[in-house]
Amino acid sequence: MILVIFCIFFTIEKSHASEDLKNFLLKFIDFQNYPWELLSNEFKAYYRITGIDEPLIFDKNQLKEFYDEQNQVVENYRVENLIVLDFYESDNFINVTYQYDWYASLGNTEMNGILSSHILIEKSNTGWIVIFEAVNQ
Fold first, then answer.
1. Do the beta carbons of residue 74 and residue 104 sit within 8 Å?
2. Spatial separation of the C-alpha atoms in residues 49 and 136, rounded to whole Å
3. Taking the model in full, what pTM does it have?
4. Cβ–Cβ < 8 Å for 43, 67
5. What does the pLDDT look like over 87-118, one tens digit per residue?
6. I need a labelling partner for 133 at 20 to 30 A (CA). Which of 25, 48, 86, 110 fits?
7. What sign results for the dihedral spanned by CA atoms 48, 51, 57, 60?
8. Phi and psi (nearest 5°) for 96?
9. C-beta atoms surrounding 33 within 10 Å
């Protein structure tokens, strides 16, 4: 009986927190209006992209250049089914794993895929700041 109550409480808590996180994460899937101000100045990103053998590693400025280049050639970009798969929250950090389906056009070529991301968010008195992201696409 005690185990059942614990499991129900854990699920409710996780569901509630994931809605707050989902609202925060929604800001990061709009590449046209990307929230650069929510990335730490020490931010690092590690991208594993299908078809590219080596990982792409970015700091905040390099990622901005990468997205600016993509925004010049990619059209009709849209995202569906954002799901927070898992998260853990401590006093100073939130570790989140999420994924979404993406769709875009590059010239006459239609593209789509699933993006999975693992991010580390630092909590402060002024809000949340992303300090690391590992992406699999």
1. yes
2. 6
3. 0.80
4. no
5. 999 999 999 999 999 999 988 999 999 999 99
6. 110
7. negative
8. -125, 140
9. 7
CA atoms within 13 A on the CB side of 94: 21
Give the H or E element holding residue 26. helix 2-26
Q: What is the CA radius of gyration of the chain?
A: 17
Centre a 10 Å sphere on the Cβ of residue 65 and count the other Cβ atoms it contains. 10
Distance CA 17, CA 86 (A): 10
- DSSP assignment of 86-100, as one string? EEEE-SSEEEEEEEE
Task: Quote the tokens at residue 117.
Answer: 């991301």
| Tens of pLDDT, residues 67-87 | 999 888 888 889 999 888 989
